[in-house]
UniProtKB/TrEMBL annotation:
Mg(2+) binds at residue 213. It comes from Actinidia rufa. The record marks 214 as: Important for substrate specificity. This is ATP-dependent 6-phosphofructokinase. Homotetramer. Its EC number is 2.7.1.11. It comes from the Eukaryota. Pathway: Carbohydrate degradation; glycolysis; D-glyceraldehyde 3-phosphate and glycerone phosphate from D-glucose: step 3/4. Its main location: cytoplasm. Keywords: Allosteric enzyme, ATP-binding, Cytoplasm, Glycolysis, Kinase, Magnesium, Metal-binding, Nucleotide-binding, Transferase.
Length: 479
């Protein structure tokens, strides 16, 4: 259950500020223990900015009701799970809270003078085009913004020769049905000075940055430099990661679509394995440092015999190893399905010194193909231990097929709410922030905090325990 609490009007909600006049209590939690993770605001360094009434007041189709506009006292608690035995160390002494995302009665931009920029960075993810579409339509329809520019091909689009594209609702109207990013994306090309100079020279005053963990680390630097130069420019990040490796938020958009798409590969692997004598279906799924796609695909499919993720090291030979497990499973069922995340098992794959150093343009390590390596190890093992017996490994690597698709309905809705959260937040003067769902409610969080937060699979929790009991796979803890 979400715990969005409306405080009585707070007197001091500055960075780390926590005081409220009446110190109310909720189920034994004193509000004085709440620590606001307040997003930065333009007035932190431009204290005399003018405010404007929210144009939603004048919207001819919609009349804001009581409570429609949020204030600084509308917050969402980060933690909603507690152990009521008071001595437990699971309970924090302070409760982190984020500002709820949504429209504010007063805004800090004259919509007629807004020049908004949208950029997409990093790998593709289902729903990127939906976010762009909803940013454009939302800025245009809700606030009457008319200058919206799409930058081409990631961060380098700020300063490259490619001219930004003028966007309007007509141009973007069916983008939510298209996979990829119509603005194009790229890795690398982060040149801080050139980017911030370009923001100044092109007179952008709202910058919407859609990207993953690397992109958010870049957004922190852009925000810091904008603040250092005291520019009236709001920066907002919208987390995009098919791997679901960004922390704090419940889930990143596009992730569920990717899990849906992965089912097709797992089903095919299952059919191939079942139709062979001693058949193994092997599927490799995306997940550089986190195994969320692999884990969720395993739990959704129920045809998976073993799920291998980067957070849980595995080994092949000996007691409790993968080969011993497969030996039993093949004897029992005649077939088995393995699903492996691309970042799993990387330490076991032999590689040259040059391969160890290899990085992509953004500085991410380049992985070797764990699926291809596993397939060859499985074949070696079988011919060594069962010479002459039939054995088949069918390896399926759907790679980009799970992310180069339009978002499903759930992800599309998430994209819409994210875009609207970003627009309302920026209009309200927030900057250096990221929007996302926390405990089911959309919030504005400091970009610095999100850029530092990771989201590994917790192999100590019940979800991973459930994977183990669904598959009965070994825990790979050498005894
Ligand atoms: N520490 C950093 N500082 C500044 N810029 C960065 C940093 N890390 C990455 N970037 C830039 O952010 C952009 C995207 O980074 P990256 O390729 O790692 O993808 P990402 O945003 O993490 O998305 P994903 O991993 O989900 O595809 C690139 O332009 C890269 O140069
Ligand atoms: O080949 P590209 O476009 O660099 O992207 C591949 C990577 O992007 C991701 O989808 C997201 O980081 C990873 O799962 C994958 O390793
Ligand atoms: Mg990344």
């Amino acid at each position: 259950m979400a715990m969005a609490i409306a405080f009585p009007e707070a007197t001091n909600l500055g960075d780390g500020g926590t005081t409220t006049p009446q110190q109310p209590k909720l189920d034994g939690v004193s509000f004085s223990q709440v620590k606001m993770q307040r997003p930065p605001h333009l007035t932190d360094y431009l204290p005399h900015l003018k405010t404007f009434p929210n144009p939603l007041d004048q919207n001819q189709f919609f009349h804001p009701s009581n409570g429609f506009y949020l204030t600084t006292s509308d917050v969402v608690l980060r933690q909603i799970i507690y152990d009521l035995s008071s001595s437990s160390s699971a309970n924090p002494s302070q409760h982190l809270a984020y500002q709820r995302a949504g429209p504010r009665k007063e805004i800090f931009f004259d919509p007629g003078h807004v020049r908004a920029a949208i950029v997409t960075c990093g790998g593709l993810c289902p729903g990127v085009n939906t976010v762009i579409r909803e940013l454009v339509v939302g800025l245009w329809e809700l606030y009457g913004v008319r200058e919206i520019l799409g930058l081409k091909a990631g961060y380098r689009g700020f300063y490259s020769m490619a001219e930004p594209v003028a966007l309007n609702p007509k141009i973007v109207h069916n983008w939510h049905k298209i996979g990829g990013t119509m603005l194009e994306t790229s890795r690398g090309g982060f040149d801080l000075d050139k980017i911030v100079n370009a923001i100044q020279h092109r007179c952008f005053n709202q910058v919407f940055i859609i990207g993953g963990d690397g992109t958010m680390r870049g957004a922190v630097k852009i925000f810091d430099e904008i603040r250092r130069r005291k520019l009236n420019v709001a920066i907002v990040g919208i987390p995009k990661t098919v791997d679901n490796d960004v922390g704090i938020i419940d889930r990143s958009f596009g992730f569920q679509t990717a899990v849906d798409m992965a089912q097709q590969a797992i089903n095919a692997a299952h059919v191939e394995a079942e139709s062979a004598v001693n058949g193994v279906g092997l599927v490799k799924l995306m997940g550089r440092s986190t195994g969320h796609i692999t884990l969720h695909s395993t739990l959704s499919s129920r045809d998976v015999d073993c799920c291998l993720i980067p957070e849980n090291e595995f080994y092949l030979e000996g007691k409790g190893g993968l080969f011993e497990f497969l030996e039993h499973r093949l004897k029992q069922n005649g077939h088995a399905v393995l699903v492996v995340a691309e970042g799993a098992g990387q330490n076991m794959i032999p590689r040259s010194d040059a391969q160890k150093e290899e990085r992509d343009e953004s500085g991410n390590p380049v992985f070797l193909d764990v699926g291809g390596w596993l397939k060859s190890e499985l074949k070696k093992w079988w011919s060594r231990d069962h010479p002459g017996d039939l054995f088949t490994v069918k390896y399926i690597d759907p790679t980009y097929m799970i992310r180069a698709v339009p978002a499903n309905a759930t992800d599309n809705l998430n994209c819409t709410l994210l875009a609207h959260s970003a627009i309302h937040g920026v209009m309200a003067g927030y900057t250096g922030f990221v929007v996302g769902p926390v405990n089911g409610n959309y919030v504005c969080m400091p970009v610095q905090e999100v850029a530092e937060a990771k989201n590994p699979v917790n192999t100590g929790d019940h979800k991973w325990a459930w994977v183990r009991s669904v598959t009965n796979q070994p825990d790979f803890l050498r005894s």
